[in-house]
Specification:
The protein is of the alpha/beta class. The chain folds into 2 domains: about 230 residues, 3-Layer(aba) Sandwich (Aspartate Aminotransferase, domain 2); about 130 residues, Alpha-Beta Complex (Aspartate Aminotransferase, domain 1), CATH 3.90.1150.10. The protein contains 12 helices and 14 strands. It has a 7-stranded mixed β-sheet with strand order 1-9-8-5-4-2-3, with helices on both faces. It has a 4-stranded antiparallel β-sheet with strand order 10-12-14-13. Strands 7-6-11 form a 3-stranded antiparallel β-sheet, with no helix packed on it. The longest helix is centred in the C-terminal third of the chain and has 19 residues. Bound molecules: pyridoxal-5'-phosphate.
Length: about 375
């Protein structure tokens, strides 16, 4: 067995409450998809985000899929997504038979560029999916204005943005619907899991029905539509509730982590630290950096050197339009220059909730020692 990395890229924190609630769920016998923790977690989460309805799903991916089906998306429709995102955003569109339409991202926030959005809207556009990447909110006002004007639904992919805000309002409360992930490396985890939120009563009814095999409300075991089993167990909800109760503390840890990285990585030529726009309450799901040509070492060489020093990192997503699974079905000659560039320059540093100040210093010292020496004047 090879030695595990000294500093993992992510390590979750399981709170004492989470352990206690999971034990309670086990001892009560409510281990499947009924039980008191499901409702408690869904209601607590809806309150925390500021939405009327929330339903648990088996993952962030299935939350996105369920959202698109609830919104009536199918073959012939187009769904606008950023070219730079986790592939699940795009796969969810492809599951419905609709066509993903890619938009390049902003070079500073890495989020969908609203200025490039209008040109991509057609008569077939059914949904726009802004993704709040790495915990930084999208610039929602221009997106929402366009969507309203063109009568298009907005589905926020907030998988990386629990507790993030835009102009003081919580991400996940802007769109027609919003999807969260509770995968092990997300800000709140249920092991695997997701949440779909909406303020629309009719959509809420649809999403709950579709998630549970679309049993007819008139007659159980009568099905007028193809539904899914995206139900979650009471055990997972117990774990999620025990984490949700600590979200403020978790967000505080992310802020402290960010302050440590910012302070100790300032002023290294060619190393770009994450930017927070004035409209964003950034939750820094991951501390994402980029190295440009002037750093003197490629991103991949730097990552490999950090790995040798026991520091695990992750490179950025590849441009979605060029992923073989996507390009095979939707080949394009179009270029997405920002995404294509940052995909080669970007990576993220260890950012788990369990990271310590000493580990942060160790990471920063390693990066400093690897940065080519320069005279102080040659900024
Ligand atoms: C994690 C993630 C997803 C998918 O969530 P899973 O729970 O892993 O299925 C979707 N979109 C983004 C932006 C993500 O980071």
């Amino acid at each position: 067995m090879s030695a595990s990395p000294v500093i993992p890229v992510n390590e979750p924190v399981i709170t004492p409450e989470a352990k206690q609630y999971v034990m309670e769920a086990l001892e009560s016998g409510w281990v499947s998809s009924a039980g008191p923790f499901l409702q408690k977690f869904e209601e607590g989460f809806a309150r925390a985000i500021g939405v009327k309805h929330a339903t648990l799903t088996t993952s962030g991916t299935t939350a996105l899929h369920l959202a698109l089906v609830s919104l009536g998306v199918g073959p012939g429709d187009e769904v606008i997504v950023p070219d730079f995102t986790m592939i699940a955003t795009v796969f969810a569109v492809m599951y419905t038979g609709a066509t993903p339409v890619f938009v390049d991202v902003d070079p500073e926030t890495y989020n969908i560029d609203p200025a490039k959005l209008a040109a991509k809207i057609t008569a077939r556009t059914k949904v726009i999916v802004p993704v709040h990447l790495f915990g930084h909110s999208c610039d929602m006002d221009p997106i929402l204005a366009l969507a309203r004007e063109r009568h298009i639904a907005v589905l926020e992919d907030a998988a990386e943005a629990h507790g993030a805000t835009y102009k003081g309002k919580t991400c996940g409360s802007f769109g027609t619907m919003s999807a969260f992930s509770f995968y092990g490396n997300k800000i709140i985890t249920t092991g695997e899991g997701g949440m779909l939120c909406t303020n629309d009563d009719a959509l809420a009814e649809r999403m709950r029905s579709l998630k549970d095999l679309s049993h007819s409300p008139k007659q159980r075991f009568l099905h007028e539509q193809v539904g899914f089993n995206y139900r979650v167990t009471n055990l997972q909800a117990a774990l999620g509730l025990g984490q949700l109760e600590h979200i403020e503390e978790f967000l505080g840890k992310k802020r402290a982590m960010t302050a440590g990285y910012h302070r100790q990585l300032q002023g290294i030529p060619g190393l770009h630290l994450p930017v927070t726009k004035e409209y964003a309450g950034n939750v820094f799901w991951m501390y994402a950096v980029r190295v440009d040509r002037t750093f003197g070492m490629t991103r991949d060489a730097l990552r490999a050197a950090l790995k040798e020093r026991g520091i695990d990192t992750r490179d950025f997503f590849l441009p979605c339009h060029s992923q073989p699974a996507v390009a095979k079905r939707f080949p394009t000659q179009e270029s997405f220059p920002v995404t294509e560039r940052i995909a080669t320059e970007g990576f993220y540093l260890p950012s788990g909730l369990a990271i310590t100040d000493e580990q942060i210093t160790q990471v920063c010292d390693a990066i400093r020692s690897l940065a080519p020496a320069r005279s102080p004047q040659s900024k």
